[in-house]
Specification:
15 helices, Rossmann fold, 22 strands, five-stranded antiparallel sheet, 4 domains, Dna Ligase, domain 1
Length: 420
């Protein structure tokens, strides 16, 4: 009997996970909760229910793959374990590495992971006192989950004080402390690693684009595009970084009795002094996953099962296509501050030479419409960065909806770097 896998989530990352699981030689039956319009179009059953442990038990699911961070931080894996259901993802205690920026910084300091210096600002008065003597630019982060939008880079004290209005005045991210960090200069790199509670096995490196506009201008988003591989970061270099950025965290969490199973995402800045960790996420990145998984030649289901087992990744080395992958995000009007919903999407059936992962879509009266900030992810493969990029943008231009936002410089640096 085929294994039954339930993917939790409804974004572009989850669509990429579903598609990659459907390619598994094990031919699993894949379900999604809640899924999205694109996942349903792929013939995957989308199920609903507030009690996912109950849903998984009723549907005799063999493995639950948790995509988003919120249910991980809230303890979904713990609930599933209590119900005797296997799950891919960290427990709430281990997921705290993403749920609290302060905890993550303390963890990094405790086990020697290189990162930016920081201060924790507990209220507005304390924050205002420190801003007067801070170095600029400076980085301010909400100490809670914020869907990638809780980071403000302040060029000067005036912008930093305006950020305080967002954090402590508007309370845009709820009741939160704020982490004030040293600004790091260099190239960003995203490196995800599968973890089995004992070891960290790096996946293919990727680079993503957080700002909404070309040239890294405008406010931070959940991610407007990505590409993989990254020039200068081969398999050996990825393993070197994982030994510095991932393995010490896995070792420390195991020592504390909260072993990390799942994906540990390290957002890194490659500085003149070497790699430094900007942040950790406790799950697959979005949109990095949409660029990384299309290059995976190994059986994803086998990898997820191995990571869910203590010591299961011993001797495992994922196999990657030499092709490049470029992912372009199409966002709705108003994103990231707001999002337009219900706008009809045209051109989906005209896309050629690329995969389209749905992120914020819905099906209404037989029409696919926008239903979120980041609406679609368009990923293309090619033997060179230039060809993959060209294919991705050709496909993206075929898709239309009112107010569409799209960066036009995704992977441009990679093309220039390879040419150089």
């Amino acid at each position: 009997m085929a294994k039954r896998v339930l993917v939790v989530g409804g974004g572009g990352r989850e669509h990429a996970l579903v598609r990659t699981l459907l390619r598994s030689p094990q031919e699993p039956e894949v379900l999604a909760a809640p899924g999205n319009a694109g996942i349903a179009r792929d013939g995957v059953e989308c199920v609903s229910g507030d009690d996912l442990a109950c849903v998984a038990r009723e549907r005799a699911v063999d493995l639950v793959v948790v995509g988003p961070e919120a249910p991980l931080v809230a303890g979904l894996v713990d609930e599933l374990a209590a119900a005797g259901i296997a799950a891919f993802g960290p427990t709430a205690a281990a997921a705290r590495i993403e749920g609290s920026k302060t905890y993550a910084k303390e963890l990094m300091k405790g086990c020697g992971v290189p990162t930016a210096s920081h201060l924790v600002l507990r209220d507005r008065d304390e924050a205002a006192a420190h801003l007067a003597c801070a170095s600029y630019p400076a980085v301010l982060k909400a100490d809670v989950l914020a869907a990638g939008k809780g980071v403000i880079i302040a060029a000067d004290e005036r912008e930093a004080r305006a950020a305080l209005d967002v954090f402590f005045g508007e309370r845009r991210f709820g009741d939160t402390e704020v982490v004030l960090e040293e600004f790091l200069d260099g190239e960003e790199l995203s490196l995800l690693a599968l973890c089995d509670g004992e070891r960290a096995v790096p996946l293919a490196p990727a680079q993503d684009y957080k700002r909404i506009f070309d040239g890294d201008e405008g406010p931070n988003t959940g991610g407007m595009g990505s590409y993989s591989p990254v020039p200068g970061f081969d398999d050996e270099r990825a393993r070197e970084i994982a030994r510095v950025a991932h393995q010490p965290i896995v070792d420390e969490l195991r020592r504390r009795g909260t072993p990390f199973h799942g994906v540990l995402y390290a957002g890194l800045m490659m500085t003149a002094a070497g790699p430094k960790v900007l942040e950790y996420n406790c799950r697959f990145g979005d949109p990095e996953t949409q660029a990384v998984l299309p290059r995976l030649r190994s059986d994803l289901l086998e990898l997820l099962e191995a990571a869910s087992t203590p010591g299961g990744l011993a001797g495992v080395e994922p196999d990657w296509s030499p092709d490049w992958a470029v992912t372009v995000v199409l966002a709705s009007r108003g994103y990231p501050e707001s999002s337009s919903k219900g706008d009809p999407i045209g051109g989906l059936d005209e896309v050629e030479g690329a995969e389209v992962f749905h992120a914020g879509t819905a099906a209404r009266n037989g029409q696919i419409v926008t239903d979120g900030g980041r609406v679609l992810n368009v990923t293309a493969l090619g033997p060179t960065a230039g060809e993959a990029r060209e294919r991705a943008y050709e496909a993206a231009e075929r898709i239309e909806f009112d107010g569409r936002q799209m960066r036009t410089d995704i992977a441009a640096r990679a093309v220039e770097s390879v040419r150089a």
